[in-house]
Fold:
Amino acid sequence: MKIDMHVHVVGTGTGGTGCWYRPRGLTRLGAPFLVRSVGLTSRDLAGPDFDRVYAKRLLGFVRGSSLDRALLLAHELPYRDDGTPLPERASFYVPNAYVLRLAAEHPEFMAAVSIHPSRRDAFEELERCLAAGAAALKCLPNVQGIDWNDRRHTRFLERMAEAGLPLLAHTGSERTMPVMDAKLADPRVLTRPLEIGVTCIAAHCGTGTMLVDPDYLDVFAGMTERFPHLYGDNSALAALNFRLRPSALRRLTSGPLAQRILHGSDLPVPVSGLLAWAGGMLSWRDCRAAARIENPLERDAQLKRRLGFDAATFTRSADVLRGARA
Ligand SMILES: [Zn+2]
Structure:
């Protein structure tokens, strides 16, 4: 079973999904690119049926690709430590119930729910999501303000470990959403979950977006030696964001680190081989061949193969995600 384990749902709330999308400041500039990367327009985004159209696109992409399933990600609000939600600091929201419903309706989809552990109803929500078949829990510690090393989250993490629910956490810098606490981009934010026994996936393997951002690939690599249940994903590494450097690619595609990598696209982040080509990691021919693939999930998968990520990166998630084999 081949899985893309990093696919974002975006919605504006049409059809009662409960989603919202309010890009602010500079992130507003990115909105047309995000919708264009899934073959839609700003007009669709403003339309009365956007959420259904977007989900239908995703389904078509999975069915028309070499992949069998996609893990759809919910998107939680930032919260203060005391459990106060901070919706004004977020640019979008995707409720757990919506991704769980999509996964229940379509065997091509699995659901990654998102729960801030400081939420007053965090436990109840976790139980609801486990009962409804959640395959993972996704978060962006730096964007949502989650310090997993905080002892107050111990019980929540113990329940995740017991239920076999893996934690997929954004690591490395973030440039498309407002950041609450830049320090929480460090993969060491996963130390306590790993010690408690939660399987963790460091999205982007700690790589930085822009050349000036700190890069935590070394930290991530060091942690994989200590924690056998730590993985990283290669999402957004075939995008126009400078995450992928030649030295990083060598480490992620060869040696022991390669055995910890899971395939993910990060759709709707636009997929392109141009920077990989400019960095000497991809031939012009391969770059052009990928550019001709219209389906962005498949284009990303092909680019990853051409960049040297092996076949196991596509199937490994079946052993990591909760219930994937069912
Ligand atoms: Zn992502």
User: Anything to note?
Assistant: The pocket of zinc ion is lined by residues 6, 8, 235, 266 (CB under 6 Å).
